[in-house]
Amino acid sequence: MSYLGQVSKMVSFDAHGGAKGQAYYAEPATGARVGGVVLIHHMPGWDDWTQEAARKLAHHGFACIAPHLYFRELPGSPDDCAARARASGGVSDNQMIGDVDGAMKFLRAQGISNGKVAVMGFCSGGRQAYLAGGRLKGLDAVVDCWGGGVIEDDPKGLTAERPVAPIDFTKDISAPIIGIFGNEDKRPSPDQVNRHEQILKDLGKTYEFHRYDGVGHGFFAAERPAYKGEQATDGWKKVYAFLDKNIGPRVKAEG
Amino acid sequence: MCSYIVEKIPVFGSAKAGDSWRRIDTAHVYFDHPYDAPLDHALSIDFHNHAAGSRERVAVELSAESARELANAILAALDRGAQEHGEAAHGELPASIAPEGMFHY
What we know:
The complex is a heterodimer. By secondary structure, chain A is an alpha/beta fold. Chain A contains six helices and eight strands, in the order βββαβααβαββαβα. Chain A has helices at residues 48-59, 78-87, 93-109, 124-135, 190-202, 229-246; strands spanning 6-14, 20-28, 34-40, 63-67, 113-122, 141-145, 177-182, 207-212. The longest helix of chain A has 18 residues, at 229-246. Chain A starts with 5 loop residues before the first strand and ends in a 9-residue tail after the last helix. A four-stranded antiparallel β-sheet of chain B has the order 1-2-3-4. In chain B, β3 (42-48) and β4 (57-62) form a beta hairpin. The model of chain B is unreliable at 98-105 (pLDDT under 50).
């Protein structure tokens, strides 16, 4: 048995508004063509764990770009950039969509690409991934990990920067969707996840939802108390299988 | 959950980071996933000097429990200060920190 090697590096990509965005990129060391994932970090920023998740996806046979959604706040550390973005109201949905579009094009331009691209996000990034699934053309899969605010029950949650709840774009989603949720989460709550699923059913969308008992929000994050190994391990396996089916086949180590 | 909520308040004072002091004029207070503290959620406070155009901050991330204890300790210390020092601990804001200067996001 052997492991799949990988290459990871900092890259720039063509972001919203003609800006040059900063991103972390990881790809498996293989001669095969692979699918790519645009990985969206959570609100607190482009943190170490996001890059670890990018490497994890490469380790499991996919190329991954993790754009720094707060690169416009540079110079500074990712946490300082996040604090500045937060203080100014957070990134707008339009800007985020433009950035994800640019990251998607970056993936397709790589020699290793098989032409298929998924978008994946955690927490607020899960919301943004779902929104990208509805607003961007050309995505092959959507991975929503506990995206809060996909269904927005609080009118205050809709702002000038984020004026429409992502659920309202569900009708426009053509790619298959996977949702990973904790049954002790409050945002999204189990009731919101149930309503979300009903809308997907009503619209005839291709989706799979996986709900886990004993966990709340963010249970993949190994450095936080919310982490639960059993549920996280199973959740990742569900994600790999979903990506293998929709943007794969995933490349594996030989021998 | 990720939160976009930020409470912004004007403050008057100084903060120290490393070996340097800096004047601060604004505090941003929010509750969300922390960046560094090994917690699911944290109460974060960023102290800024916006008047100087600085983009630097002095930041803390606290557990909810310790943040409440800190808030109580601040009030307790101010109450004791008021007993020993009189009006100084009741809050004499400089003219630049007028009540109408309060703002929330």
